[in-house]
Structures are given as C-alpha cells and as structure tokens.
Amino acid sequence: MLNLNDPSLFRQAVPVGNRWIEADAETGTPIYNPSNGDLIGYVPNLGAAETEEAIAVAEDARHAWAAQTAKHRSGVLRRWFELLMENQDDLGAILTAEQGKPLTEAKGEIAYGAGFLEWFAEEARRAYGQTIPAPMSDRRIVVIKQPVGVVAAITPWNFPNAMITRKAGPALAAGCAMVLKPAPQTPFSAIALAILAERAGLPAGLFSLVTGDAAEIGGVMTASPTVRKMTFTGSTGVGSLLYGQCAPTVKKLGLELGGNAPFIVFDDADLDVAAEGALWSKFRNNGQTCVCANRIYVQAGVYDAFAEKFAEKVATLKVGDGFADGTVIGPLIDDKAVAKVERHISDAVDKGASVVTGGKRHDLGGKFFEPTILRDATVSMAFAREETFGPVAPLFKFETEAEVIAAANDTEYGLAAYFYTKDMARSWRVSEALDYGMVGVNAGVISAVEAPFGGVKMSGLGREGAKQGLDDYMEEKYICMAEV
Ligand code: ADP
C-alpha cells in the first residue's frame, strides 16, 4: 500500500459538480500498479449522467469565478501551486505507484506540473486587451479578453499530473470552469490534484473529474453546446475523432497529439553532448512521451563513434521498480505497450537492423523492457512512420543536410525535432527547415512552462504553456464605441 505523509491525498472518490462520488469495490474500476500488478484502489465508474451533471454545475459556477478579480484567481492558483510543492513527495509516490516512472522523475513531474499553476497564476493578471486607432474620429476600438466558458479536458497517462495542470492552470486563470476525464490508468494523481485545489480555496464545481467509459464521457463532452472548448492530449486517432465530434457545436479546440521526433547528429556536433542529449530525449519516462526522440539520424562520418558513446551511456541505465533506489527506467504502462516495442524491434531486425544493446524483455519480467539501440535503421521500418512510445533508439545513417531534412520531415507528424551542430548558420537554416512546432538545437529536453508547447500537421492544434497558453482559453471581444 502507499505510504504517504498525508494519507488523505489518496482518495477513492472523484469530485463531480458540487459533490464527491465514492468508489466501491463492487461497481468501481480497479487501478493497478504497472510495476508489480498490485491493486492500488478503485475509482467510480461514471458515465453520461455524471458528465452532464458536472457540465451543468460548471456552467453555473463559472460566472461567479469569472467575476472575481484576476488577482483573486491568481491567489487561488498560487496557493494550489504551493500545496503541490509542499506535498511533492506524496504526489510523486501516488504518481509512481500508478504510472511506474521512477520516484525522482515523478517528483520532477510534480514540480514541472506545479510550475504551470505558478506560471498561469502570474499570467492571470496579464490578460491584456487592446485599444486600436479607429477609422472614424467619433469612434473608439477596444478589444477585451474574456473566458471561453466551460472547458472539457481529456488527458493521458504519461504525465498524470503535468498534462492536467497545463490545461487547468490557464483555464482557471482565464475564468473558465473545467470538467476533466483523466486517463483511466492514472486517476489518483488527478484526484490528489482536485483535493489540493479544494484546499487552495477553489470553489466547488469549477474542477470536476469524471472517471469511467472514455467514449461515453467524451461523447457527452463533445456534443454539449455548453462546453465551449475541448482540450485533449493523447493519440492522433482519438484526437481526430474528437475533432470531428466537436464540429457540430463548433468548439474551440486544443489538441496535443502524437509525434515522431527526429533527432539529428551532424558531423560537426559535440558527440558527448549529443549522446547525453539523445539519452534523455529518448529514454526519459521510458520513451513514453510524445516528444521523445523516435528516429535518430547520425551523419556518416560520426555514425560509429556516436553509436559507441551512446551505447556506453545506455548500458548504465538501471531498470527496476520506480520506488527502488537508483532506478532510471521503470516498467512500460501496459502489455500492449510491451507488445508494440517488441513488434518494432522484430520488424526492424527482419528488415536488416542489428541490435547494439538490449532488444528484449527484461529479466525482471512483467512490463519491464531492456533499453534498446538498433543500428542500420531504414525508412522501410515501422518506427520510421509510427511512434514507438517505448525504449527503442533506432540509428539511421545519412550523408547530407538536405537528405536528412527531407527524411526528418517525411512524416505526418510535426511536434518536436532536435539536432546537434556547432555551426551557427546551420543552426538557423535547419531550425527553419524542420516542419515542427518545437526544435531543440543542441538540447534534447526542451519543455518549459514559459515556452509554447505544441505541434503542426497531425501533431495538433494550439499551444500550451507560455503566454499563448492563456490566450487559448480566452475569446477576444471587439467593442466599437461610437459618440452619441
Ligand atoms: P493512449 O493510447 O496513449 O492511452 P489515447 O489517445 O487512447 O492514448 O488516450 C488518451 C486519452 O483519451 C485517455 O484519457 C483515454 O481514456 C481517452 N480516450 C480514448 N478513447 C476515447 C474516446 N473514444 N473518446 C474520448 N476519449 C477517449
């Protein structure tokens, strides 16, 4: 069982509208630890009725919240941020138990997630409008920003805390109310966040959680005319389904979808820095992030040297239970994820790739997999098209800059890309040529609350974090004032 300093942060119940709904073992959904299969607890199995209730209460509650001063909303968000940091150890432990990532990494996510609440507490007070010189002397043009209204959110399991705060922070800062469906694998991190929101002074009804059947809940959220914005982080398949479902009510949409990040090492790169960057870009969260390096392109002149340095580093990664000392790589989230990793490796080996290190399930069994490097990757292999979402690093060889830019852009995705070079002119040239929403130059991990996160092409719509993140939860209203 979870050993928490504050056991009340673990609750088998969700806030829906003005009440908490308790789970029981008979009707609730069991949640298991992916590391050892232990039962963690139950969450309520809710559906259309509770989603409708949460939306109706949110619509009621949002007006009073929006009528508060921005400073007041900022204060509540600031307190929420502080409570996350004060409870970082417990929140990290809940996250590790349900998601599997190592405790140090989980605590890092809590700090990163809390950072969005801090950032949007600050941005709440800077939702500036505009005055514009009018074309007629008896008129004035004023633009104000107002909250979009009720926001529905659906989040994934890979960042059970930060993917929620990155949406709830700006929504609440703007003066919206949110109804959230957390990922089915990781509801307890969402519940702990809701408990702390209540303690921070967030009025009831502004942050509801609905756990249960995804399609049913998502169906009600998207069909509701009351919901004015849908924000989703997850797969491109589900994202585009929701996009379609939102069309009849013409909702504002924020979509953070899949990626297939290229990671390019040019001949003139600092190979030590590049190998270290590749290590964390690829193996952070066991390869289960949408910005993880998925295709590593290395220029021919440094291919062997890079492969050797990278393999040395990968060999040091300790696989194990997230609570065990020294663990850097936890289990994968479920058996389906393990099967996909195996499929990508066997497909590549069948087509001529060779295993440098790893390549198979880990001796620990269960959902543990060896961190893997493959050489001689080619465009015909599955990972050239599909996101692996696991600990597999395929090394592609390239000759010229033009060739690698074309290869990097040859995907339906456009989330994050990385490249390593010491040449300043190339840094600009390649940054501009990559069809991606985010580019790391000599940096393999680039997420920051201050920076706009998001993709182009089938990786999504809109930006999260940064000042753009708040704008996505507000509408601009143009007011024309004429003299009478
Ligand atoms: P993953 O395969 O990484 O779990 P998904 O896109 O399937 O990615 O899941 C992301 C989120 O979308 C989860 O909260 C999941 O429950 C939700 N989801 C999955 N299918 C649907 C659906 N048909 N409608 C609404 N939400 C869905």
Commentary on this structure:
- The chain is an alpha/beta fold and 484 residues long.
- The chain has 14 helices and 20 strands.
- The strands form five sheets. A seven-stranded mixed sheet has the order 14-15-16-13-12-17-18, with helices on both faces. A six-stranded mixed sheet has the order 9-8-7-10-11-19, with helices on both faces.
- Residues 154-156, 181, 183-184, 214-215, 218, 234-235, 238, 241 line the site of adenosine-5'-diphosphate.
Helix content percent band:
25-40%
Q: Which molecules are bound besides the chains? A: adenosine-5'-diphosphate
Number of distinct helices: 14
Quick check: average pLDDT?
98
How would a textbook summarize the main sheet?
7 strands, mixed
Instruction: Write out the CATH superfamily name of the largest domain.
Output: Aldehyde Dehydrogenase, Chain A, domain 1
**What is the fold named in CATH at topology level of the largest domain?**
Aldehyde Dehydrogenase, Chain A, domain 1
Concise account of the structure shown:
This is Succinate-semialdehyde dehydrogenase [NADP(+)] GabD. The protein has 484 residues and is α/β, with parallel strands linked by helices.
Architecture blueprint of SSEs:
Blueprint: E1 13-16, E2 19-22, E3 29-32, E4 39-43, H1 48-67, H2 70-86, H3 88-99, H4 103-123, E5 130-132, E6 139-147, E7 150-154, H5 162-174, E8 177-181, H6 187-199, E9 207-209, H7 214-223, E10 227-233, H8 236-246, E11 252-256, E12 261-265, H9 271-283, E13 293-299, H10 303-315, H11 335-350, E14 354-357, E15 372-377, E16 392-398, H12 401-409, E17 416-420, H13 424-433, E18 438-441, E19 460-461, H14 466-471, E20 474-482
Parallel strand pairs: 7-8, 7-10, 8-9, 10-11, 12-13, 12-17, 13-16, 15-16, 17-18
Antiparallel strand pairs: 1-2, 3-4, 5-6, 6-20, 11-19, 14-15
Helix pairs in contact: 1-7, 2-4, 2-5, 2-6, 3-4, 3-6, 4-5, 9-10
Bound molecules: adenosine-5'-diphosphate.
